[in-house]
Amino acid sequence: MDRAEQLRRWLNATLGEEPRIAPASDDASFRRYFRVRLGSLRTSLIAMDAPPEKESCERFVRVARLFSAAGVHVPAIHAQDIAQGFLLLSDLGDTTYLSVLDARSASVLYGHALDALVRIQLATRPGELPDYDRGLLEREMRLFPDWYVARQLGRTLSAAQAESLERAFAAILANNLAQPRVFVHRDYHSRNLMVSEPCPGILDFQDAVCGPITYDLVSLLRDAYIAWEEERVIDWAVRYWERARAANLPVPPDFADFYRDFEWMGAQRQLKVLGIFARLSLRDGKDGYLKDQPRIMGYLKRTCERYRELAPLALLLDELDATERRVGYTF
Which CATH entry fits the domain spanning 3-90: 3.40.140.10, 3.30.200.20, 3.40.50.720, 3.40.350.10? Predict the structure, then answer.
């Protein structure tokens, strides 16, 4: 029996009637989402299909409870079958931040997102979520040489280039691991935030961890899918920092120190995402993510050019960019 039929039978048994099922969205994982409508209900529901050999529904359920208790808007879980990998969720709609963000709407929408982020971080409790430890942070960064450099660009780094990259990894990790630790959504950006009541509705949180305090802010303000002028990014970062200080979250007392941590956390995430997008294209056939790589590379280059310790990485990125142009990659 295929997954679609398995899901249909589960929904029939759970709901007691034959629903109308239509695709709602896919994401970068193996999860799929379907909008479910019933003749007896005016509102729709969302069915999550997470093949248990590939994805864990248990993580989603656990984090949903933690984030709901923190006072943010996440889908309510109406039914679950962990063994089969099915969840039936409330529907937060189909209006993502990304679909409506513009110069006029951004301030209000980001204000809501910053408020929700502070509430998530204030809910931090030890032992509730996996640690965003050195091993995981480093494995993520290694997606960059393994998938972006070796597989997408077809490059083998020279000994000197490989040494520069290792030194950059060590410096970035040292900064990331020194930051205060809070609950981290891990993909807190415009495709996972919904315009809803209350706003934002928050999705795709099942990979949440306890990690560096700047991580989710970087995901939000150095978004892979939409970019803003540096002045606006700094202004929103200041507004978050002021909210965090007022809430007694453990941010540095000097904004300049906080912003440096923000940028260095961004370097880790951007290296990771460049590798992930290469892998999504080459392994999973999801080429649509390639068009966003230049935006992410732009963030990374500008950060590396601002800090002396990361200057060798900036040089390596320029060398790789020259190779990319020669072999004809266009995004």
Answer: 3.30.200.20
Q: Are strands 86-90 and 209-212 parallel, antiparallel or unpaired?
A: unpaired
Digit-coded pLDDT (tens) for 65-117: 999 999 999 999 999 999 999 999 999 999 999 999 999 999 999 999 999 99
pLDDT tens, position by position, 207-223: 999 999 999 999 999 99
Amino acid at the residue 292: D
Q: Look at residues 326, 309, 296, 312 and name the one whose alpha carbon lies nearest to residue 148.
A: 296
Structure tokens given for 203: 């999705």
Left if phi > 0, otherwise alpha if psi is -120 to 50, otherwise beta: which for 15? alpha
**Lowest-confidence region among 50-54, 108-112, 142-146, 302-306:** 50-54
Class of domain 97-327: alpha beta
Q: Please state whether 93 falls in left (phi above 0), alpha (psi between -120 and 50) or beta.
A: left
Q: Comparing C-alpha atoms, which of 141, 135, 170 is closest to residue 276? A: 141
| Residue tagged 């939000």 (tokens) | 220
HSE (side-chain half, CA atoms, 13 Å) at 312 = 14
Give the SS3 label for residue 170: helix
